[in-house]
Write a structure and sequence with these properties.
Elements: H1 3-28, E1 36-39, E2 44-48, E3 52-57, E4 63-69, E5 78-80, E6 85-89, E7 98-104
Antiparallel strand pairs: 1-7, 2-3, 3-6, 4-5, 4-7
């Protein structure tokens, strides 16, 4: 191997190693789903469109909810006062529909 090839292949190898380490970190990270609780009360409703998912707290108490999507992704936990609305991502052009709402702990970062 020539000296020039060694100089070129070393940065490529370092970049590949760094990328592999980043991917392992991302796949090993716990999902937000781990911090969700039970299904949200029936008085908490959602209305979805391709752009937005609007969640309304029709309960008499404050609730903390997270939105689950068909691809397994979870929206961050939001605290809703009685009568309050919150806006989350919609299903988009790829059809990532909401599968449900779950209670969550807003202090856990989920």
């Amino acid at each position: 191997m020539t000296n020039l090839m060694k100089q070129i292949s070393r940065p490529i190898a370092l970049t590949a190693t760094a990328a592999a380490g980043l991917l392992m970190t991302l796949t090993a990270a716990p999902s937000a789903m781990a911090d969700t609780g039970s299904p949200a009360p029936e008085c908490v409703e959602y209305f979805q469109s391709w752009r937005y998912t609007n969640v309304h707290n029709g309960c008499g108490d404050t609730v903390s909810v997270a939105v689950e999507y068909t691809n397994g992704q979870w929206a961050p936990c939001r605290v809703l006062q009685p009568g309050e609305w919150a806006t989350f991502a919609g299903y988009g052009t790829d059809g990532n529909y909401v599968t449900g709402l779950r209670t969550c702990d807003p202090t856990s970062g989920a």
